[in-house]
Amino acid sequence: MTQHHIKLAHYFLEGDEEGALEYIEGLFSKYPRLYLYEDIITPAMYHVGELWEKNEISVADEHLATAICDFVLSRLDAKAPDINIHLTR
Question: CA 13 from chain center: how many Å?
Fold first, then answer.
């Protein structure tokens, strides 16, 4: 198992939206999109939640990480071809 989700969580917690986006975009050359969503982005946010649950980060830190994750997801979605068109036909 890789530690990509830990590194991504660090970008989220630092508020580094460009770093997080560049990191994920760099992984696109190695991994399929579904893997990135299910095995890197989602576990990164679970990691953030675990840190909050252990009181290792504040609510404000968790909210910052969530906002950066939302930004990254919106940017990825804007760059992706619309696969839903093909799924509904």
Answer: 11
d(CA 37, CA 57): 23
> pTM of whole model > 0.70?
yes
Token pair, residue 41, equals 């982005």
Distances (CA, A) of 47 to 9, 23, 80, 82, 87: 7, 17, 26, 29, 32
Q: What is the pLDDT along the chain (89 residues), one digit of tens a residue?
A: 579 999 999 999 999 999 999 999 999 889 999 999 999 999 999 999 999 999 999 999 999 999 999 999 999 888 766 544 444 44
Long-range residue pairs from 37-41, CB within 8 A, at least 24 positions apart, any chain: 39/5, 40/2, 40/4, 40/5, 40/8, 41/5, 41/8, 41/69, 41/72, 41/73
